[in-house]
Amino acid sequence: MIFPNSSTHKVGYVATYPGGGYPQELGTSHSETLTIIQDLKDKGWVDLLTRAIVFEFTLYAPGTDTTSMVAALVEFPLTGGVMASYEIQSQKLFWFQARTVDPLMVLEVCFP
């Protein structure tokens, strides 16, 4: 399956990679994920023509009510080797508490 417009481009050390590609969801447990990765290895999903793999996932920290989006890029240059980079974007989900009026909330409603 190719999703040409499903994600944004990724900038790496070697090249800039357009969005899209072949997605594969990993499991929710360690053993399930290892089984999926072994199946991908057996089917030759990553070969000598593979130039990059992007791992994207989201983490939620309930103690701070923060969500972090993580994108890790692993590049395989033509010269050999592996180059890895990552990007982390965090944001607070709920800025305001219920049943209270915050001045910032009023400004955000009045001036979107």
**The number of domains:** 1
The fraction of residues in strands falls at: 25-35%
Largest sheet: 3 strands, antiparallel
| Helix share bin | 10-25%
Number of strands: 5
**Helical region count?**
2
Oligomer: single chain
Biggest sheet strand line-up: 3-4-5
Label the overall shape.
elongated
Model description:
- The chain has one domain (10-110).
- It is built from 2 helices and 5 strands.
- The chain has helices at 30-42, 103-110; strands spanning 10-11, 16-17, 52-61, 66-75, 83-92.
- The strands form 2 sheets. Strands 3-4-5 form a 3-stranded antiparallel beta sheet, with no helix packed on it. A two-stranded antiparallel ribbon has the order 1-2.
- The longest helix is centred in the first third of the chain and has 13 residues, at 30-42.
- Mean pLDDT is 83; it is low at 1-5.
Protein traits:
alpha+beta; 30% strand; disordered N terminus; two-stranded antiparallel ribbon; 3-stranded antiparallel sheet; 2 helices; elongated; 112 residues
What can be said about this structure in brief?
With 112 residues, the protein is α+β, with helices and mostly antiparallel strands. It has one domain (10-110).
Please write out the topology.
Blueprint: E1 10-11, E2 16-17, H1 30-42, E3 52-61, E4 66-75, E5 83-92, H2 103-110
Antiparallel strand pairs: 1-2, 3-4, 4-5
